[in-house]
Amino acid sequence: MTLSVGWLSALAVGVFSALVLQKLCFPYFWREFFFMLKLVRFGVKLELSDLTSSICTVLDKFIEQAQRTPNKPFVIYDGNIHTYRDIDQRSNRLAGVFLERVKLRKGDCVALLMSNEPDFLCVWFGLKKVGCLVAFLNTNIKSKSLLHCFNCCGAKTLIVGSGKASDLMEHVDSLLEDNIQVWAMTSQSENPRVHTLLDKIQGASDQPVPAVLRATTSLRSPTLYIFTSGSTGLPKAAVITHRQCLFATVGLWAFGATADDVVYIALPLYHSAASLIGIGGTIELGATCILKKKFSASQFWNDCRKHNVTVFQYIGELCRYLCNQPKTEMDKVHKVRLGVGNGLRPDVWREFHRRFGDIKMCEVYGSTEGNLCLMNHFGKIGTVGRSSFFNKLLFSFDLVKYDTEKDEPVRDQYGFCQRVKRGETGLLLSKVSTSNPFFGYAGSKQLTEKKLTRNVFRKGDAYFNTGDLMAEDQESFMYFRDRMGDTFRWKGENVATTEVAETLAPVDFIQEVNVYGVEVPGMAEHRAGMSAMTLRPGLTFDGKKLHEFVMRDLPAYARPLFIRLQEALEMTSTFKQQKFKLVQSGFNPSAISDPLYVLDYLQKSYVPLTDSIYQRILAGEHRL
Ligand SMILES: *[C@@H]1O[C@H](CO)[C@@H](O)[C@H](O)[C@H]1NC(C)=O
């Protein structure tokens, strides 16, 4: 008896100390373990459904949800409630019209050009009910890229939202010439060759079309094309399979959201974040979403209070806009508890917590087309997730040494890449395999091949090149450092533009800042640091103060040499800072109407950049 008690207590002490040791050495172990367990269980179920051909797509999930909770609000838009049944029935009507009037057939590809509105979902689901592939077009699309988009995904039909129909009219002729039929979500059309849909839905039946039309036999068959914005050049059509859609839809659930949550979606639906993580996530949970046509920083918190929003989707810039709003005593009065998104910079992240309280911010790292996804479910500031043991079981990725000058990975004497040491910045590559496939871009083998890096660690292997430079800390947390190409070289040193921007952010008169490198004539291989910035309302640019700041906080090579004051910083359509145009326009004061300043070490200040200084820089008489 005594013996067994002694043995038991020894065991208990042993287990206890093992747990303590584990807590000390691996404080994130269990949180990671349970999080991953959730995902792995989901993944296993998914693969089993593929083997047994009982795949439940996102659309199937929606239809099930509409049967389970028909009267539950699914989308609230502009103050109007659309229940699960409403959206289901309207998409049935549309599916009927697509079959009978538009003569669409299973497997056809249809392009969708609509802004955020409930009908975006009805048309999307209606098309999927008929078994069509759907290509989401960016609503900012320019005429030049429009035809290109049709060519890459092979769409022969375009459906235009009511608001977009008039914008499109000038391009309609070229579409029609290419034998693309155009259908608008309107009742009347000025152009007799543009067909109308709204009038036809009215009389259509709200009964479902045959389920066999939407059935799919493989998780790996494409279901959507989503265009990703190339920073230069034409958009690329990423091929999205059912499997990717289904994984994206469990994001909110994995972060702990439930059917009782109210999800705020103000990002454009033509991107995967809003359509798959946001709408798909709402369906997976059986929750309600507040859909916004556009994000508005001044309306955001009022909306959240009005609708009891608990979860919102962000990109870093949105949080920055929110922090830049005037403070009010209502700032912390809301029920928002979770933010899901990406690109939140550490300074904004901290400020966001200070202003709006304890909202768990979960960063999701992964591109639409990529084969890697990292999730920071810890809410740990500044990181995109953890390169843990469990994560490595699911995804195989590595950080490799990167040559910023050549814009490519460093190769050793045998032609292979080298892993960076912990703490060092490297290029993130993700191995392409059967469990983590890369489906590439529709209509272009060449673009697909360009995203791949081959022979990385051995002959014949292939990795998806994320184009992101990251570093991993001692606790295996991953930190975003820079976008490939967002680093430039000056006087033999690499300048990481986002790092400089983050350092400048605390300067009191700066509202927003964008750092980039400009070419100086006569110094071909170098880029001089330049920073475009906007000023906080009521404050003025103080060259002396900025000089003092950069001298203290930035190494010599990283100090911006030129400053460009702007009324507003230009953003790309995905709210990323527009650098390309700024780089192109350079620093010539006679060509730029914005106020320009140059760093002057003698006067210990940033002084206005005059024509004569500019000429002396070109002549090499003014030392930079
Ligand atoms: C929000 O929550 C409050 C209190 O829980 C409740 O009284 C109110 O009706 C809710 N509003 C909406 C739009 O659900």
TrEMBL record:
Protein localization: Cell membrane
GO molecular function, one term: long-chain fatty acid transmembrane transporter activity
E.C. number(s) listed in UniProt: 6.2.1.3
Reactions catalysed according to its record: tetracosanoate + ATP + CoA = tetracosanoyl-CoA + AMP + diphosphate; a very long-chain fatty acid + ATP + CoA = a very long-chain fatty acyl-CoA + AMP + diphosphate; a long-chain fatty acid + ATP + CoA = a long-chain fatty acyl-CoA + AMP + diphosphate
GO CC annotation: endoplasmic reticulum membrane; plasma membrane
Alphabetic keyword roster: Cell membrane, Fatty acid metabolism, Ligase, Lipid metabolism, Lipid transport, Membrane, Nucleotide-binding, Transmembrane, Transmembrane helix, Transport
Top-level enzyme category: ligase
GO BP, sorted A to Z: long-chain fatty acid import into cell
Cited InterPro entries: AMP-bd_C_sf, AMP-binding_CS, AMP-dep_synth/lig_dom, ANL_N_sf
Domain of life: Eukaryota
Recorded topology in the membrane: Multi-pass membrane protein
Entry annotated with the keyword Transit peptide: no
Domain AMP-dependent synthetase/ligase, chain residue ranges per copy: 64-386
Pfam families: AMP-binding (PF00501)
Family: Belongs to the ATP-dependent AMP-binding enzyme family.
PANTHER family: LONG-CHAIN FATTY ACID TRANSPORT PROTEIN, LONG-CHAIN FATTY ACID TRANSPORT PROTEIN 6
Alphabetical list of NCBIfam families matching this protein: PRK08279.1
Designated name of the protein: long-chain-fatty-acid--CoA ligase
Species per Swiss-Prot/TrEMBL record: Monopterus albus (Swamp eel)
